[in-house]
Amino acid sequence: MISIHIQGKDGIIETESVIKGCWINVRNVDKDDLTQLEQRFGIDSELLTDIMDLDEQARLEKEDEYTGIIVRIPVYDDSQEVPFFTVPLGIILFSDKIVTICQKSSDALDDILKNRVKGFSICNQNTFVLNLLGRAAFTFLKSLKEVNKRTNTIKDELQRSIRNNELIQLLSLQKSLVYFTTSIKTNELLLEKLQKSPVIRFKEEEQELLEDVLIENRQAIEMANIYSSILTGTMDAFASVISNNLSIVMKQLTIISIVMMIPTLIYSFFGMNVSFPFRTDAIITGFIIMAGSLFASALGAILLNIHRKQRKGLRKKI
């Protein structure tokens, strides 16, 4: 889907024709869009292929007719196995227009198109790039807070009942944090390259904006690392809890098996060719054997319970 936007009095507005100083926004890209971008605007097919590659890292390249920038931006899609992930965003700077290409919709672009970013302008290409990178960093921070919020919700559910579904959700959030950390770091490398590269020359006030974007990007990296460490510790803690609960269950089952083994042993003994007491009355004989088995089982359970309490008392003394 290709849309064309210009700078209006009240912000960014959509238009029908390509004019000087416009912004051509391409999202949810299909083959027809790629063909039109290549034939109508002269964008190299290799660059378009790189932008469509989900694993492409942030970078900067200079061509004869345009300057190409690829950055990573966060995306949320609840239909995916990992709902929070990142995709490459291509920013193509021509002398008279700007083209952005992204295969998914993102809050970073939606906020700009809906004029939610105060003071955003497409008249200056340098500030456009910096403001877009700053909005990407802000969106990363917002997405990280949402990931942390979901992690806390799942932790509360796990404390009440440990199930595989919650653990799988935690694992998917952990993957999201890995994607975010990697993408934010590559964006930081791009920003540092923009500071030194002669491809795009920034004025003094633009340099200050670049520094602000770098600071916000570093904050996103620190937050991603903190949340990732917390989530890793949570996963390890719940793994230990699950292992401990399994040990407790196995211990209880073992005690039950030992107690139930006593009547089994007694009945097995009387199942052999041995002399029975009270042969004249089979019912009384059966009741005596049953009572003896129950008494032996109860005695075994009592002895095991006494032994367990003694071990607990010994641990408290230690």
Question: Could you please describe the fold and organization of this structure?
Answer:
The chain is an alpha+beta fold and 318 residues long. The chain has 2 domains: 2-243, Beta Polymerase, domain 2 (2-Layer Sandwich); 254-317. It has 7 helices and 7 strands, in the order E-E-E-H-H-E-E-E-E-H-H-H-H-H. Strands 2-1-3-7-6-5-4 form a 7-stranded mixed sheet, with helices on both faces. The longest helix has 67 residues, at 204-270. It is elongated.
Mean pLDDT: 83
Q: Which fold name is given in CATH as the topology of the largest domain?
A: Beta Polymerase, domain 2
- Give the strand order of the largest sheet, numbering strands 1, 2, ... along the chain: 2-1-3-7-6-5-4
The N- and C-terminal alpha carbons lie at a distance of: 71 Å
Classify the secondary structure makeup into a structural class: alpha+beta
Shape: elongated
| CATH top level class name of the largest domain | Alpha Beta
| Overall number of structural domains | 2
DSSP strand count: 7
Q: Helical stretch count?
A: 7
Largest sheet: 7 strands, mixed
Low-pLDDT sequence parts: none
